[in-house]
UniProtKB/TrEMBL annotation, chains A, B:
It holds the Pfam family HrcA. Belongs to the HrcA family. PANTHER family: HEAT-INDUCIBLE TRANSCRIPTION REPRESSOR HRCA. It comes from Sphaerisporangium rhizosphaerae. This is Heat-inducible transcription repressor HrcA. Residues 34-62 form the HTH deoR-type domain. Coiled coil: none annotated.
Length: 336, 336
DNA sequence: CTTGGCACTCGGGAACACTGAGTGCCAGAC
DNA sequence: GTCTGGCACTCAGTGTTCCCGAGTGCCAAG
């Protein structure tokens, strides 16, 4: 269907368009990439590519521009992920290593990624459901008020103030705490509900109202409130590129829900996902592509991170950066 | 110097320009605001206002546009802060009341403010230094590793993992915890350093290495790391307004340091601060104004929040919104 | 001090022509 | 059959010119 040379032409079109941001014509193309054929031949190939929907012309008598389908083919078959330079790797490593807590890791990561790719970076906080409980703490604040703190293995800390139905003594609280930690240590957050289900029954009668109140808040915090927190950085990199609808993109970025869907569902083994232009699920984002990857400590994917930019981005480089950053973050999280 | 009518003309110019975004001419002005004088008279007044630097013309034979100085006079003497409608107040109240923790309060606030003003909202997290300690918790994670958690009266939770020099027993930790809480409960964070200075001496010899390690991390967390966290929302509201340098503004928004300076130093008693165009300290932000206010629980200002928009914003409305939101947030924080 | 009149200015839009990059197609060469 | 050079054609973008009208400044009269 498409012989070797036509593919080469497509690759050349994509590369040139990405670097110049101008429709690329047959002549310039034949010169810059030494294809060994004349412009006329290139024109013929281009005509075919256009017919098949891989490229298009913005208007008659202008050069060609890749379509989403064209980029897709390019990404799938015509390009290789470009690894980072040694210098870049070192920079990542030192920059991320300085982080002091989870917040810091995420903030640094998102900035790093934005700077590295010169695009908008998006990072999701490690998922609660996939983490495990490292510690549960109950801190009495007042007679009838305590603070519930849950610390996960990824360093995430969730806390919530709980108003109790009755006055409780410190040792009652201490007892419950001990019990909770015994039950839950190392427990996947998704399984907390079942694990604590029978816990009130194992307490003395008097402690049960307190326990059920606390447990319901605990469950609410961990399970129901699946606010997979997301942050972004580098919005300034969007400005000046008029090929994307700036307003729409900014709106999308501030909608957690949309952002979640863009990063994509956690799929198999933190593969690199690329969504090109109209492939992505939000109509305001045609004209933009998303390159995302999962990251995690060890082999379970905790969450995702990625980059959002115009469809005419440099995919090989971007994919390399995203993959590298995802790996490093995974390492950092595993090591803390 | 400027008689009553000239001020009225200036006010009219500002109001018209804000609502139409087009230079306003003498004729239109004389008609729309019934000033009771002819266009010619208005022209004379305008000439004076221009000479004094309150208004300017973008080019000969165009209408007049307020200068920063003109807006300044308008804000200071010609306008009244416009209170919110009852409906808006209710909306704020219910929206903020639903917040479950500090993060949530801040997130909701910043969104609310962005939506209310249709501009970029900026909210600073309650300052650490001005808060007081509500509780300190030491959570053993491993033999030689504990987690330090500090909870402030504003609901802010700071945590940090500490690697200890020696193996410690649980009761040693418990003892230190008790001591810390006894010392620090209600202590202003700015004074923590002096308060705990002599603490190691009051411990048995064997506990001191552990204590000093923990204390140094504590101080580092609270004092040295003065990362007054800041968030913003509503960047999409900037798009489509070409009078501001979009790129510069977005860059500024992502620089915590710049943002801090924009909100202004916490000054006396949470007054409303307005910085107009070139008045503000960052050169990329000419063309934009900042309306900010302090907020706090009770009468000590905890932090600041505000709004950033084009100089040609509706100051009375914006100021009303900022003030109202600041008050409500203060109430919410005080009540939790 | 205010007002109507008047000449002047100049940004912005419409009409127009020109240029040049790029195309499609065809006939001839390999 | 595939490639190539040649050629006529298209059309976005640019520059030029022209004109209109909103808006101004100034002046003399009320």
């Amino acid at each position: 269907m498409l012989d070797e040379r036509k593919l080469a032409v497509l690759r050349a079109v994509v590369e040139d368009f990405v670097s110049t941001n101008e429709p690329v014509g047959s002549k310039a193309l034949a010169e810059r990439h030494n294809l060994g054929v004349s412009p006329a031949t290139v024109r013929n190939d281009m005509a075919v590519l256009e017919e098949q929907g891989y490229i298009t012309q913005p208007h008659t008598s202008a050069g060609r521009v890749p379509t989403d389908k064209g980029y897709r083919l390019f990404v799938d078959r015509l390009s290789q992920i470009k690894p980072l330079s040694a210098a870049e790797r070192r920079a990542i490593e030192t920059f991320l290593a300085g982080a002091v807590d989870l917040d810091d890791v995420v903030t640094r990561t998102v900035r790093l990624l934005a700077q590295l790719t010169r695009q908008v970076a998006v990072v999701q906080y490690p998922s609660l459901i996939r983490s495990t409980v490292r510690h549960v703490e109950l801190v009495p604040l007042a007679e009838r008020r305590i603070m519930l703190v849950v610390i996960t293995n990824t360093g995430r800390v969730e806390q919530r103030v709980v108003d109790l139905p009755d006055v409780v003594a410190d040792d009652q609280v201490a007892h419950l705490r001990a019990l909770l930690n015994a039950c839950l240590d190392g427990c996947r957050l998704g399984r907390v509900a079942e694990t604590v289900a029978d816990l009130p029954e194992r307490l003395p009668e008097g402690d049960r109202p307190m326990a059920t109140t606390i447990l319901s808040v605990l469950l609410e915090t961990l399970v129901e409130r699946h606010d997979e927190k997301i942050v972004f950085a580098g919005a300034a990199n969007l400005a000046g590129d008029f090929s994307v609808g700036l307003r729409e993109v900014l709106e999308a970025l501030e909608e957690q829900v949309v952002l979640m869907r863009l990063l994509g569902e956690a799929n198999d083994h933190s593969a690199l996902t690329v969504r090109i232009g109209s492939e992505n699920p939000y109509s305001g984002l045609h004209g933009t592509s998303i390159v995302a990857a999962g990251y995690g400590s060890g082999d379970n994917e905790l969450a995702r991170l990625g980059v959002l930019g115009p469809t005419r981005m440099d995919y090989p480089v971007t994919m390399g950066a995203v993959r590298a950053v995802a790996r490093y973050v995974g390492q950092i999280l595993a090591g803390s």
